[in-house]
Amino acid sequence: MTPVAAELADRAGRGCPRPWWFLAAVVAWTWAFLWPATLTGQPWLAFPTVLLTVAGLLGPLAITAAFVGLGWWDAEPRNFWRRALDPRAVAPRWYAVALGLTVVLAGAPVAIEALRRGVPPWDLVTGGAPAVFLLVGLLAGVVEEPAWRGYAQTALQRGLPVVAAALLVGVFWALWHLPLFFLEGTYQATLGVGTSAFWAFHAALLAGAVVYAWLLGSAGGAAVVAVVYHAAGNALRELWSLGGVEAAELATEVAMACILVLVGWRWMARKLEA
Question: In which domain, by residue range, is 64 found?
Answer without folding.
Answer: 3-268
